[in-house]
């Protein structure tokens, strides 16, 4: 029965039954597709927490289906899982900076923008924290929603598109880092079904770097609203109890522990909120919007961020063609 229910969901993705829109929650969609509790707990719910960073009870089914379309309904390579052995900044940022410099671009880091400058209703540049001003024919903003609203002139934030941006909510992620005296499982990572700790990564198997003092684990709690206000000691207790529950055969010692809370890790993908995400062309002439949270048709992921950058660049290139 569970396999038949999963097949039914697959047929839906082939457009053989009604697809969800943004007002339908993942929970309602899974119920409509006849997904069993077994399939939900073992496959669907871990996937939803991972790709939407939101509770299946409120997350948009349309956003989930957008991911499924790309991952499972296109090429075989699209559904391959990869675990990076290097920090994402080294994978993406360093090479991108090298490419831009080769093309003659000037890059500045730590030069915080304090204001987007306007003239005759058009964005014409930025004022930096150190007082300098930079002029530009076009601006592309790739900063998060709250940061964008802080640098826009007040009159611009009254436009309905930016009022919608103000209505976007965020969803936190908590990462727990633990040093234990021995490995707990085989392979680079495991998902814990039915646990508030969604994923456990064995960093020593991903990026071998022998540590004389122990074995490093990183643990992810997605959509962590219920835990984001908890103290480090409470989260340490949660981690230890869950690891002992799921790996009872490994009598480990927890030697070190650290908490990293990202309170505004992503926007919330609650059902009915996609229309609040802004288009690439902002209401302010000369200002284009990018970032994973803009209206790309995808949830706030790296793929969405990349697509938003391509979309913004295409607007400028088409304008100057």
Can you offer a commentary on this structure?
The protein is of the alpha+beta class and 321 residues long. The chain is built from ten helices and ten strands. The strands form three sheets. A five-stranded antiparallel β-sheet has the order 6-7-8-5-9. It has a three-stranded antiparallel β-sheet with strand order 1-2-3, with no helix packed on it. A hairpin with a 2-residue loop joins strand 1 (113-119) and strand 2 (122-128). The termini are far apart.
Low-confidence parts: none
> Over all CA atoms, what is the radius of gyration?
22 Å
What is the residue-mean pLDDT, rounded to a whole number?
90
Largest sheet report: 5 strands, antiparallel
Q: Briefly note the structural class of the backbone.
A: alpha+beta
Strand content: 15-25%
Based on CA inertia axes, which overall geometry fits? globular
- How many helices? The count is 10
- Count the E strands: 10
Order of helices and strands: HHHHHEEEEHHEEEHEHEEH
Identify the quaternary structure here.
single chain
Question: Which strands sit side by side, in order, in the main sheet?
Answer: 6-7-8-5-9
Question: What proportion of the residues is helical, as a percent range?
Answer: 25-40%
Distance between the termini: 56 Å
SSE map:
Layout: H1 2-13, H2 26-32, H3 37-52, H4 61-72, H5 88-102, E1 113-119, E2 122-128, E3 133-135, E4 139-141, H6 145-151, H7 160-166, E5 170-180, E6 189-191, E7 199-202, H8 203-206, E8 215-222, H9 232-246, E9 254-267, E10 287-289, H10 302-320
Parallel strand pairs: 4-10
Antiparallel strand pairs: 1-2, 2-3, 5-8, 5-9, 6-7, 7-8
